[in-house]
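Newbie here. two chains, one complex. Structure please?
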Amino acid sequence: MSSASTSAAPSPAVRRGRVWKFGDWISGDDGIVRFSELRNFGDDHDPADLARRCFAGLVPDFASRVRPGDIVVAGRGFGIPSHPPAPMALRAAGIAAAVVESTDSAFVRRSLNAGFPVAICPGITAAVEEGGELEVDFATGRVTDIDSGAVMTTKPFSPAMLEVLDSGGLVPYLERYLAGEARA
Amino acid sequence: MSLTIAQKIIARAAGTDAVAAGDYVTVTPDYTVMQDIYFWKNIKILERLGVPEIAHPDKVVAVLDHTPQAALGSEHVARNRESREFVRRTGFSNFFDAGRAGLRHLVMVEHGFARPGLLVFSDEPNIASIGAVGALNVPISTEVLVSMVRDSNWVRVPASVRFELTGTLPRGVWIRDLVQAICREYAGGDGLVQRCVEFGGPGLARLGLDSRQGLLAGMYHAGADTAVADVDEVALDYVRERAGSRPYEVFTADEDAAYDEVRTWDLGALEPFVTVPPRHSGVVPVSEVGGRRITQATVGSCASNRIEDLRAAAEVLRDHDIAPGVTMYVTPGSPGVYAQAAREGLVELFTERGATVLSPGCTTCWGYLGALGDGDVAVSTNQENYPGRAGSRTAEIYLASPYVVAASAVTGRITDPRELLPAEGAVHVLG
């Protein structure tokens, strides 16, 4: 898949990939991963293990079929409720972004802190096809269905959010911040 | 200006005159509160980052509410010790250890941290309960770590809806039933998503602080980010007793504040509800699932672990033993609630009826104590009902009020509390 950007270094704010579609109310704690099977709440999780668990209860062969850079499109209430392993699993599986009808603010933050961007984009599930190609620009808020050319909008990330995304998550962002290298 | 209460609190914390829904603004939080597992995790991260101590320790509150029991064989024995060593080494004073703790939702109000007009960052949306005293909970999840390093962070200003309460709860009906009535309408949709629910009206004014906290603690499950209530004299009396000389400011919404929805809820029109697992939208009148056999009954969690909740359960159990085959747990939300329950004879009553009174904490709500096994059926005041929440994935968790939970414990089946409550009884609404 080639980048739509003409610049040499693609911005981490732009995510483009193949679409996986999911329905409404896929929770973080029982749909994205089964949190109850990760009893050691607070432990550092092995990314390879989380990747294997991602959506395993919904799509048993997801881990073998997902490709790096794929994008999750989901319905209402995606990720509600959640604990930290849910967005960690999405990122570990190689998914580049989630574009959802709705979610709560805590999931957006929790995901961003894990280096995983979530866009809220009402109407997205009707607008895109499973297996289609979608591009999300978190800096401008443009959501583009590459196949049809249709453009939708999401609220752009603020400079502070983009800095966390660019850093790869909250802890690497704080490393930059403490080194005096953060812009926001 | 035309601002809601949440917008005024955020504007104050941002040092600006006006904000609009959807704006990103940088705020200075008044407090940041986190539970024990995040606290331990975060002090490990601080160590890795080379940060020797919490940057603004007077504004951070850490509460041992998930793992104060430190069960044999759990990792929490060692983790809690590491947390205590950090606290000793750095002199961090707002660490609420086992015995002083209870749920952080209660610690925040009981110790006067949550006060009118304050902005509180937290690790959990249910801490919206502090909105009962006019403080705004902004749930930022893992980002509570940031508040250990610096004194500011970003917030997305929520839109608001306004719920006016009228009437008085009928006998056998609890504030949880209003939470469920709201969930029945909103939990499957987007009506409250990314919004703050603002409560007011004469019905709210007749509720005690405990019920107000339980109400606000449940709005997350209807989809809301947070919730806040009008501050009246009942709330101010409570705050004055605990705030000492610490400042606060009461905000009211502007007359022309913009709400996505304004709506009235008549408390008098409510009935006992039960939420059928595994979703919060599965709310039905208790009669629809009446007779379902249960194996566990629990009263506790940030939804229902305050003294008014325990009194409601006790009212049902006054003249009835718990059925054979049912394990009942009651978890007071804090040492203060526990002591009050003891003074009122409730601990004795629960014990005599066959219930186990657990030590303050989150306990059964996440299965740390009283875990559910395969095929168990619980009726519970706890907050979550998804498979595996409190143990086995095949266990079912029906959510309900302390009245329904206690009545079901008595019969061994999901039961309408109005069948068991004496005709005359204590009126739970405080004046």
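Moderator note: Chain B touches chain A through 48 residues (CB under 8 Å). The domain at 275-419 of chain B is CATH 3.30.499.10 (Aconitase; domain 3). Thread marked as resolved.
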